[in-house]
């Protein structure tokens, strides 16, 4: 089984490869979860959304930037990415 550190590194690298033309600003590790059957590491990462590209008065009017959240499933057996999903906050 791979360690969580390897799963996190894999998830972040996958995200960068999946969005090669995006500037993933303010990337944050949000959650790490090992599935109950220990088959997957679920790695939640977030990054600043489009509003963060605004400057000055536009940013003040828009308020704090939205964040995009992604959950990346990494197989614990071999470290391969199984899926990436949008994580909605409730």
Tell me about this structure.
The protein is of the alpha+beta class and 90 residues long. The protein has one domain (4-86): Nuclear Transport Factor 2, Chain: A (Roll), CATH 3.10.450. Helix content is 24%, strand content 34%. It contains 2 helices and 4 strands; from the N terminus they run H-E-E-H-E-E. The protein has helices at residues 4-18, 56-62, and strands spanning 28-34, 40-48, 67-75, 81-86. The protein has a 4-stranded antiparallel sheet, covered by helices on one side. Strand 1 and strand 2 (40-48) form a beta hairpin. The mean pLDDT is 88.
Topology:
Blueprint: H1 4-18, E1 28-34, E2 40-48, H2 56-62, E3 67-75, E4 81-86
Antiparallel strand pairs: 1-2, 2-3, 3-4
Kindly summarize this structure in a few lines.
With 90 residues, the chain is α+β, with helices and mostly antiparallel strands.
Approximate strand percentage: 25-35%
Mean pLDDT: 88
Structural class by helix and strand composition: alpha+beta
CATH class category? Alpha Beta
Report the count of strand segments: 4
Q: Given the structure, what is the number of helices?
A: 2
Strands of the largest sheet, in order across it? Answer: 1-2-3-4
- Helix coverage percent of residues? 10-25%
Order of helices and strands: HEEHEE
Distance between the termini: 32 Å
Would you give the CATH topology? Nuclear Transport Factor 2, Chain: A
Number of domains: 1
What would the principal axes of the Cα set say about the shape? Answer: elongated
Which regions have little confidence, pLDDT < 50, spanning 5+ residues? none
Under the CATH scheme, the architecture is: Roll
Q: What is the gyration radius calculated from CA atoms?
A: 15 Å
Largest sheet: 4 strands, antiparallel
